[in-house]
Write a structure and sequence with these properties.
Elements lengths: L1 E4 L2 E4 L17 E6 L5 E7 L14 E4 L2 E4 L6 E5 L6 E4 L14 H4 L5 E3 L4 E3 L2 E8 L2 E8 L4 E3 L15 E3 L2 E7 L2 H9 L7 H8 L3 E7 L4
Antiparallel strand pairs: 1-2, 2-3, 3-4, 5-6, 6-7, 7-8, 9-11, 10-11, 11-12, 12-13, 14-15, 15-16
């Protein structure tokens, strides 16, 4: 669930894990909209009666300013919902997109070199953080709207690598390092920005520190 305000909500409740032998209630739309009394005011993105997600994602909605971002495994891309306009689709073009039908299973998506969008992106002005799964291995990457490109992470220069992005703050991405001082030291040794003495002290004692990414510096 995500809210535009106290009287305008978006919900999703897609069936997932197709290998579980249950008889779920059919869902006819991926997203529905309600008022504060939970009365449905609109429905979006129709789904087939037998459709199930490959697995239950950790998030289906994120925020971009006043808009709401949505993704499900039906789509190679994501939608932005605004208060008064129809949802807008933002496609991602894969060279080896995973072929989908009602018989699709996670083990098939994880085999070969199939590519799919694994989580709902985080969006700021001009940039997205997208998590791409290739052969079952997921990785967060920066996408730049101006060039319509997604940039893979360098294996030798982690200067701008996204680390555990969990949200946005204004026009910044927010990531974190938790209880992994060795990871931090290795990143810094290969070009990642050094933290403050206070942050280093917290990490050295097994604590957690946030990382704020300013997109103008990427």
């Amino acid at each position: 669930m995500e809210a535009f305000d106290d009287n305008d909500f978006l919900f999703t409740c897609l069936n997932n894990n197709p290998d579980v032998k249950v008889s779920p209630s059919p869902v006819d739309f991926a997203v529905w909209r309600t008022d504060s009394h939970w009365q449905i005011t609109d429905k979006y993105l129709p789904v087939e009666k037998e459709y199930t997600e490959l697995y239950g994602k950790s998030r289906y909605f994120t925020r971009y300013k006043h808009d709401i971002v949505f993704h499900s495994f039906q789509y190679d891309g994501f939608f932005t919902f605004s208060r008064k306009e129809d949802p807008v689709f933002h496609p991602i073009l894969f060279s080896r997109p995973f072929p989908r039908d009602n018989e699709s299973r996670l083990k098939e998506a994880n085999s070969g070199q199939w590519q799919l969008l694994a989580e709902t992106p985080f969006v700021v002005d001009g940039y997205n953080i997208v998590e791409i799964s290739i052969a079952g291995q997921g990785q967060q990457m920066f996408a730049v709207n101006a060039s319509n490109k997604i940039f893979g992470n360098s294996e030798v220069c982690p200067k701008n690598i996204p680390i555990n992005i969990i949200g946005t703050m204004g026009n910044h991405f927010v990531g974190y390092i938790n209880d992994n001082y060795e990871l931090y030291r290795n990143l810094v040794a290969y070009g990642f920005q050094k933290g403050s003495p206070e942050a280093e002290d917290i990490l050295s004692r097994g604590g957690c520190c946030l990382i704020i990414y300013s997109v103008g510096n990427l």
